[in-house]
Amino acid sequence: MSGANRIAGQGRLTPARTARFTFDGKSYEALEGDTVASALLANGVHLVGRSFKYHRPRGIVSAGPEEPNALIDVARDAARRQPNVRATVQEVFDGMKVTSQNRWPSLTFDVGGLNNLMSPFFAAGFYYKTFMWPKAAWEKVYEPVIRRAAGLGTAPTEEDPDHYANRYATCDVLVVGAGVAGLSAALAAAATGARVILCDEQPEVGGALHYDRSVTVDGKEGFVWAQEAAAKLAAMENVTVLSRTTAFGYYNHNFVGLVERVTDHVARPDRKAPRERLWQVRAKRVILATGAIERHMVFGNNDRPGIMLASAARTYLNHFGVAVGKKVAIYTANDSAYEAAFDLKRAGVQIAAIIDSRSKPGDAVLNEARSHGIEVLPGHSVVDTKGHRRVSSITVVRNGGGGKRSIAVDALLTSAGWTPSVHLFSQSRGKVAYNAETGQFLPGTYAQDCLSVGACNGTNGLQATIEEALAAGELMARATGNDGGEKVELRGENAFEWTGGMAGAAEGAGADTNVKAFIDFQNDVCAKDIRLAVREGMHSIEHIKRFTTNGMATDQGKLSNLHGLAIAAETLGREIPKVGLTTFRAPYTPVTFGTIINHSRGDLFDPARKTPMHAWEEAHGALFEDVGNWKRAWYYPRAGETMQEAVDRECRTVRAVAGVFDASTLGKIEVVGPDAAEFLNLMYTNAWDTLKPGRCRYGIMLREDGFVYDDGVVGRIAEDRFHVTTTTGGAPRVMNHMEDYLQTEFPHLKVWLTSTTEQWAVIAVQGPKAREIIAPLVEGIDISNEAFPHMSVREGKICGVPTRLFRMSFTGEAGYEVNVPADYGQAVWEAIWARAETLGACAYGTETMHVLRAEKGYIIVGQDTDGTVTPFDAGLAWAVSKKKTDFVGIRGLKRPDLVKEGRKQLVGLRTKDPKLVLEEGAQIVADPNQPMPMKMLGHVTSAYWSENCGHSIAFALVEGGHSRTGQTLYVPMPDRTVAVEVTDMVFIDKEGARLNG
Amino acid sequence: MAEQALRKAPLGGFHGGSAAAHVTAAGPASRLSLRAGTDAVTALSKALGLDLPTKPKTSASSDARHALWLGPDEWLLIDENGADLAALAAKADVLHSAVDVSHRNTAVLVAGTKAAAAIASASPHDLSPSVFPVGACARTVLGKIEVVIFRTGEQDYRVECWRSFAPYAFGLLAEGAEDAGL
Amino acid sequence: MLLIYCPYCEEERSELEFRHGGDAHIARPTNIADITDEEFAEFFFLRDNPKGLIFERWRHIHGCGRFFNAARDTVSDKFYASYKAGEPKPDLSAVHPATEKTVETYEATEGTAK
Ligand SMILES: [Zn+2]
């Protein structure tokens, strides 16, 4: 038993293949291939949710992605739970748990339903008006209450255990939608040899052929032909057919986002398989065959469970074998709904009546209805319905008054006509055009290389659709240079041509009425809300949309937009195209965050860059800090040490003995060519032609506006070869900056740049015993003080491998930076460490490096500077050449604001209480007792406890700082005000003697 | 005299992926970033023993040595036998820049019927045979990093990246290979 | 995501391989140290931000590495030309008609259905 409403012999599912699921705790049987909606209907369940604002009982309206009402929570297990799933799309799998949403305590008795009684207070714009005053109540009362009441489902709290995949794809022709039109287009395109991707959101291709059983193609039942056509396409090497795949976004230059649902329909999924797969498709041409969506009729109480779209009822019957009622009426303004009556009648369902708001229905359907013995009421309308959890009767009147009667029904099918799905076309920035004859917005001006075919293009009739699609498929494929293959021909036949359609409120829900005639079911927007919005002064459809929230729910108004527009136009007394259609935006249907981020989670969220010595550092207890994507050894605590104790020890040891530090992350650029020195002259403030091979110099790089951009030591390896270093974080942008000038401003210079950041592992050995540590390991370089003074570079060998050995220091101690090819980094480090450990040296991390450099007054670009600091502000005037006539920033430095008095300048600070360490970022004032807001003079950029000095040290950017030496300033903190003295920036070894030791 | 330091590759022994797309770490190789103008191509080609390609996306190979066009004045040279490429280039008495990047780069090899799909899990580069035949090469992106993709066979690709990005590249390709193999 | 033709690689590539580089055809004055404040402001700070045709720099940073120039419509994002750095501005009067009448707001542009 897979439901009492399943009719034997109807539908395409296999009766023997069942699956069990629960809905609100009650177990039901379904058939494989059922959606949750079809399975619930098979079991006679129509009430599936409560509406958002009024908490009215709601049922299943559609059989597809346009569903506004039947949003459910689907769970596989505790962690795999997804709210707001459309029951009309979600396939049933064995063991799934489905829960209704937006109700408390239960679906059949819902306290929020009181909102329905209170609805006079919840008119359009209610939120904007009611919660304006008093201001304080917003935070304390209104917002918390609204937050609790608002929203549809509840978000899962557990981490998502599933994974998601991504695939970039390119093709000649992407066909979106695999109904008659899409399949025809794909067949024609594929026949030329073009690379074709065909995608469709449903599990099986066919589109409207799911319900339209009166169609034949090439003599076969439409749905059967569709499956065969898809199989034929899938077997072709140049074609990819993607089912359960929604094209959700159409972006620039034919870039289309697809989401493929891989395992959500499977009871026991392969855990290697992703839950969903994102396809990022770049197509040379796109064919949109997205069909049309049926609109509901807008009349009083048109939202009761059991009232649904006519085409949906046909889908449930013809595809799923489910009758949506036992006594069904049809309310329509167009011919297509008649076919629902015919199908149901043939299946043995009683048709109470066809109520047609038109006085003259199409002759063909009218005659057919009469031959079936179905009562047709032309020129009549349904004006009200009754029934609590399901519609029980409808009230019918003759248009213009009179003839009122009540008809008992258990389902009502409605159709106001068909809205072409121009969503993707509109997203592609194409302009839609209004066709007054059919009342449809259709593709007008194309913005990209795409074509719309079939119902989404307003094309009526099966053969016309097929021919249009075949021609488009071939045309688009040939436009991409594919000229093989034979012409594809197809012959389609269908029973009836459909005419008719309306938009806006039907009889009994017009301007003078106050009935709840819903246009947007999900956001509970009625026809009268649109009119109220217009009366309140909203004249643009964009304003009306936001005021009423029409079309702003998760279904984005797939059913409601045209109704809302028509009512607005009528109320404004303007024509529909004058009021305008709101813009369709991606995504077409909701996309999970998992799909959007796909592989970018866990270890693959971001690259974690590790140096060649990382494993050693980890093994020796280093803690790491993130610097950009790099993991840098921060400090090496010994057992029982706090961070401060470890850093104090490392700081003492480096100055007393020596320390070994991993400097591999520093950016490195090899500058090679006869004009290398001239190029560096232009890129740095310093002069480089005077630097001799074998020597190094500290350089400052500016932007053209005169502000410090980066700094680093540059070594001249040979006349035509420099080894440039940059800050760790600055490496890529410095490279880009240099390439920019080289390629576009100074292309005459014969010089090339190569990033060598990762070619070299860099081991800094710093401290009085640095030379003693490395001496036995170095070959071919005289490292005596005389032969290899401070700021020198030599090439030779260390531990038997090539090295570029720098004599340089970022600590103020005598020191070396050993560059070796990166794969040798760990071995050389270990050899150096073996020596260092014997001599009593330590390994130190970035925290100690920061303290030691600050003790010596060395700045860190990006910490002590912030993009508004000149070399003069930073006390680096000595590094700016006065002889050069050009370098990047030379003119910027002379700008009036950069030379005026009172600029913020870098100074040292000492706290009056030597033990107290300032907070980086703290503000500085001259008078702590001035009234607020106080005048801020600047802020602290670096602050540390200096174990070597025995007091705290700090740098700060302070207004006119260089002339304030000796002044007392104040740093107001929440708990106290700290007095500081302005000093110079060198706290240790002011004469620099240790560097040359 | 210190002990000779041993070389330690960033991706030693990594392997993964699926039957349809194997992902393995390439062995060590010497590499050179070569920059030169068009007038130097002939002399450098002679010195290096292969014709430096001058068409976009093309490469030239001779034995285990490959020259990959990366830009109009830029080639990546790879020698799987570890030849001293800079020394070879230095024999050409023409203006050029040769920078050893043997240790800067490492490579991941992706091989199998679904190798291209595995790479396409993270790279937007079109690997269709019509535009990316055997021998084609290009610098592009893989997820959040830059790579050079070199098609070495019908179902074989070499993905070069900087060493610290290698675990990330490997992880992405292995995950992509698993998905491609489903 | 844009598809951009690189004149050096001679094919279209994904925007992911490129970096935008601001307005094109703004030459750094050769006598930059001597120009006035106004001239410096004009050179460095002031840009037109046109609605419609713009000539701009791109770098194929994750491709061939070259800077080049492109002509793009800032409304439609359509590229009219890509050309190598140093080459003159192409004449686009034939392919790029003068921009239509000014529409005041974003929503007006996006929401107006003709
Ligand atoms: Zn390029």
Automatic annotation (TrEMBL), chain A:
<dbReference type="Pfam" id="PF01571">
    <property type="entry name" value="GCV_T"/>
</dbReference>
<dbReference type="InterPro" id="IPR013977">
    <property type="entry name" value="GcvT_C"/>
</dbReference>
<feature type="domain" description="GCVT N-terminal">
    <location>
        <begin position="613"/>
        <end position="884"/>
    </location>
</feature>
<feature type="domain" description="FAD/NAD(P)-binding">
    <location>
        <begin position="172"/>
        <end position="431"/>
    </location>
</feature>
<dbReference type="InterPro" id="IPR036188">
    <property type="entry name" value="FAD/NAD-bd_sf"/>
</dbReference>
<dbReference type="InterPro" id="IPR006222">
    <property type="entry name" value="GCVT_N"/>
</dbReference>
<dbReference type="Pfam" id="PF17806">
    <property type="entry name" value="SO_alpha_A3"/>
</dbReference>
<dbReference type="InterPro" id="IPR029043">
    <property type="entry name" value="GcvT/YgfZ_C"/>
</dbReference>
<dbReference type="InterPro" id="IPR028896">
    <property type="entry name" value="GcvT/YgfZ/DmdA"/>
</dbReference>
<dbReference type="InterPro" id="IPR006277">
    <property type="entry name" value="Sarcosine_oxidase_asu"/>
</dbReference>
<comment type="similarity">
    <text>Belongs to the GcvT family.</text>
</comment>
<dbReference type="InterPro" id="IPR023753">
    <property type="entry name" value="FAD/NAD-binding_dom"/>
</dbReference>
<dbReference type="InterPro" id="IPR041854">
    <property type="entry name" value="BFD-like_2Fe2S-bd_dom_sf"/>
</dbReference>
<dbReference type="Pfam" id="PF13510">
    <property type="entry name" value="Fer2_4"/>
</dbReference>
<keyword id="KW-0560">Oxidoreductase</keyword>
Automatic annotation (TrEMBL), chain B:
<dbReference type="Pfam" id="PF04268">
    <property type="entry name" value="SoxG"/>
</dbReference>
<dbReference type="InterPro" id="IPR007375">
    <property type="entry name" value="SoxG"/>
</dbReference>
<dbReference type="InterPro" id="IPR027266">
    <property type="entry name" value="TrmE/GcvT-like"/>
</dbReference>
<dbReference type="InterPro" id="IPR006280">
    <property type="entry name" value="SoxG_het"/>
</dbReference>
<protein>
    <submittedName>
        <fullName>Sarcosine oxidase subunit gamma</fullName>
    </submittedName>
</protein>
Automatic annotation (TrEMBL), chain C:
<feature type="region of interest" description="Disordered">
    <location>
        <begin position="87"/>
        <end position="114"/>
    </location>
</feature>
<dbReference type="InterPro" id="IPR006279">
    <property type="entry name" value="SoxD"/>
</dbReference>
<protein>
    <submittedName>
        <fullName>Heterotetrameric sarcosine oxidase delta subunit</fullName>
    </submittedName>
</protein>
<dbReference type="GO" id="GO:0046653">
    <property type="term" value="P:tetrahydrofolate metabolic process"/>
</dbReference>
<dbReference type="Pfam" id="PF04267">
    <property type="entry name" value="SoxD"/>
</dbReference>
<dbReference type="GO" id="GO:0008115">
    <property type="term" value="F:sarcosine oxidase activity"/>
</dbReference>
<dbReference type="InterPro" id="IPR038561">
    <property type="entry name" value="SoxD_sf"/>
</dbReference>
